């Protein structure tokens, strides 16, 4: 079983966390004069963003939804998300990737796609195509989706039950592995002029998968790409979600506002992965963090306070409705959620309290909940000078043993530009910044797991590896 590096020697993984929408985790901030994310429809927006991130972040990570947040203020109500552009409108995150790949050298691209609503055959083809076009720099964030509105968009009367979504996901991944790892032998493409053969006739086969949820004959339509299976991300938080993630994921996002909760989660997840025979060096753990950094603590705090004046609190409460299934519209503005309301809200409120110094005496009303969510959503925040932010991040790494961060923004891409300008030099001086120059020409898998561990393909302990069809077979 592999060991993991000690926090001091570890180079951190840094992802920029975003969405193909005018706002991601900060509804209303599209109005800020410095904000550019409303340009998400322009290819130039994406290529400019990619150039800012390349050589700094490991990946641009794009969340995605297939429905609208319609829980707040009554089932089916969509009005509250519209003014603040709360994750709506939202376009297909996979389409700008090829253009971004063309202007970058080491940046990877993590794209979210749902096993509940996609077809494994079509998804495998799309990610293979992207793996070719990015020369091995693509990752898939596997989600099972949580919005009832998505189910209704995709032909269902209601959502498939939570644990069954994970059973579907498990078979979905199995089909994808068979297609990507097992239907083309590694040396199938020969381009042999003498034999007049592009592909060797004996080296491509069907998979003939007939399972409970999917029937796929194969073969996979496109020849093997560098990674075959895209690098796999997951972020399940439930029991079924964690079991799925620790089996399949190569990197996991760990949600959580509080260091103690995340530390416990890290231990749980690593234990579950080890029980499934996974090498722990092949599973990286990433925490979410909103970073607002500036030349001094005062300037960063001033910036945060100014951002807050643009926040659309109704949009944040609408997001909360979709994330938790809880409609806060039914509560009065001054109800104290520490003591009233569903357990899900009380537990979120108590996590927040623990992270916010001096919050003990403050009443956790609906407005307060909305303000806490307004910038960064359910992620912890690091606000301050480069030194202050780096200290916060170092504490997280030291105390939770996470491998890195999904950095989110309120104003995009300005807050990410500030990370590059202020924070990254500080991380370099502390010896925790990775080596993006060495990463050029390497795959996502090599850059996340390290070239000592990975040759760019699924590692031998991964459940998809059993389908590999090697030239020597
Ligand atoms: C940091 C983070 C990012 C996520 N991003 C998405 C996303 O973009 N789209 C989505 O449908 N679900 C997303 N999820 C949700 C899930 O990955 C998961 O499918 C959902 O939480 C339901 O599973 P669970 O009950 O095991 O958590 C995200 C979760 C976390 C913690």
UniProtKB/TrEMBL annotation:
It comes from the Eukaryota. It holds the Pfam family Bac_luciferase. Residues 85-330 form the Luciferase-like domain. SUPFAM superfamilies: Bacterial luciferase-like. NCBIfam families: FMN_nitrolo. PANTHER family: ALKANESULFONATE MONOOXYGENASE-RELATED (PTHR30011), XENOBIOTIC COMPOUND MONOOXYGENASE, DSZA FAMILY (AFU_ORTHOLOGUE AFUA_3G15040) (PTHR30011:SF41). Belongs to the NtaA/SnaA/DszA monooxygenase family. This is Luciferase-like domain-containing protein.
């Amino acid at each position: 079983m592999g060991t993991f590096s000690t926090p001091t020697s570890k180079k951190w993984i840094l992802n920029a966390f975003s969405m193909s929408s005018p706002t991601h985790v900060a509804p209303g901030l599209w109005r800020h004069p410095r904000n550019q994310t409303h340009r998400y429809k322009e290819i130039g927006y994406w290529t400019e963003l990619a150039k800012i991130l390349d050589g700094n972040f490991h990946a641009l990570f794009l969340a995605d939804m297939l429905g609208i947040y319609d829980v707040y203020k009554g089932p089916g109500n969509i009005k509250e998300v519209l003014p603040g552009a709360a994750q709506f409108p939202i376009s297909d995150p996979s389409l700008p990737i090829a253009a971004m790949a063309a202007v970058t050298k080491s940046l990877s691209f993590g794209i979210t796609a749902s096993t509940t609503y996609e077809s494994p055959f079509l998804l495998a083809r799309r990610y293979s195509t992207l793996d070719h076009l990015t020369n091995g720099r693509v990752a898939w964030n596997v989600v099972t989706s949580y919005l009832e509105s998505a189910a209704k968009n995709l032909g269902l009367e209601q959502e498939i039950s939570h644990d069954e979504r994970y059973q579907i996901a498990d078979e979905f991944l199995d089909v994808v592995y068979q297609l990507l790892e097992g239907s083309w032998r590694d040396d199938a493409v020969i381009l042999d002029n003498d034999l007049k053969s592009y592909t060797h006739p004996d080296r491509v086969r069907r998979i003939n998968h007939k399972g409970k949820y999917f029937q796929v004959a194969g073969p996979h339509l496109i020849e093997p790409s560098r990674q075959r299976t895209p690098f796999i991300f997951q972020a399940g938080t439930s029991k079924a979600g964690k079991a799925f993630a620790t089996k399949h994921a190569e990197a996991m996002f760990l949600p959580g506002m509080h260091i103690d909760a995340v530390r416990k989660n890290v231990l749980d997840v690593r234990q579950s992965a080890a029980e499934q025979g996974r090498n722990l060096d092949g599973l990286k753990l990433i925490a979410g963090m909103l970073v607002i950094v500036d030349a001094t603590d005062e300037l960063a705090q001033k910036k945060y306070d100014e951002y807050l004046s643009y926040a659309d609190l109704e949009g944040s409460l609408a997001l909360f409705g979709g994330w938790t299934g809880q409609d806060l519209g039914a509560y009065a503005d001054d109800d104290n959620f520490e003591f009233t309301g569903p357990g899900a809200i009380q537990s979120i409120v108590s996590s927040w309290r623990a992270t916010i110094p001096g919050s003990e005496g403050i009443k956790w009303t609906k407005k307060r909940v909305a303000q806490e969510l307004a910038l960064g959503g359910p992620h912890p925040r690091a606000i301050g000078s480069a030194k202050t932010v780096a200290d916060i991040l170092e504490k997280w790494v030291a105390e939770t043993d996470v491998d890195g961060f999904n950095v989110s923004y309120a104003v995009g891409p300005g807050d990410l530009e500030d990370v590059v300008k202020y924070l990254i030099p500080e991380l370099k001086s502390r010896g925790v910044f990775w080596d993006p120059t060495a990463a050029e020409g390497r795959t996502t898998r090599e850059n996340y797991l390290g070239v000592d561990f990975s040759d760019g393909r699924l590692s031998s302990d991964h459940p998809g590896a059993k389908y590999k069809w090697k030239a020597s077979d």
